Amino acid sequence: MTSVKLFKQDGSQNGTVELNDTIFSIEPNDNVVYDTVVMQRASQRQGTVGVKTRGNVRGGGKKPWRQKGTGRARQGSTRSPQWVGGGTVFGPVSRSYAYHLPKKVTRLAVKSVLSEKVSSDKFVVVDDINFDAPKTKSFSEMLSKLDVTTKTLVVLEDKNSFAALSARNLENVQVIDAKGVNTLDVMNSDKVVITKAALSQVEEVLV
Predict the structure, then answer these.
(1) Which of 109, 111, 117, 166 is most buried by a 10 A CB count?
(2) Residue 22 belongs to what domain range?
C-alpha cells in the first residue's frame, strides 16, 4: 500500500495515511486521459450559435413580381437566400456537443491523473477541514500552512458547506465534492488537497 503524509488543519503532520494502490499507484494511461479531457471540454461547449433560414426571417410573404413576362428570373420571396436580408443556407444551428465515454474509461482516466499527482508529491491529505462559519481568511491561512500556494483543487466530503464557502472567493482555488472528482479538474490543478473523509468517498466511487 502506498502511504502519504497526513496533515492537520494547522499544517502539522499527523502521521500517515494509506492509499489504495489500484487507484493511486497505477501506470497513467495518457491516451485515455486525452480522450476524457476532450469529451469533458466538448460537453462544456454551449452550442448556442444559430442562424435564420428563409423560414425564420421576417417578411417575404408577397411574391416580388409576377411569374412571367417581366424578363427577370422568377422569384417567390424576397427572403430567399440570394436576396439581401434573406435566410442563410446550411448555417450552424443550436446543438449539444456532449457525448459520453464508457464508465471504465473515465474511471481509468481519473485514476491516472490522481496517480500522477501522488507520484509527483502534489497530493495533500488533511485530517479534517472544519470551520465554525465561512471564513475566507482562515482558509487562505490554512493553505499557506500546508505550503499550498499554487493553483489548487480542494476535495471535500459531503455536507462540508462552511469549508466550501470559505474557499469560494479565493483566487486559483477550486472546491469540488468527493463524488465529483474528474479528470479535467485534477489536471488543471497544480496540487490536490483532500480531506481524509473525502479520500474514503473517492475510493468508494473508483474501486
Answers:
(1) 109
(2) 2-45+98-206
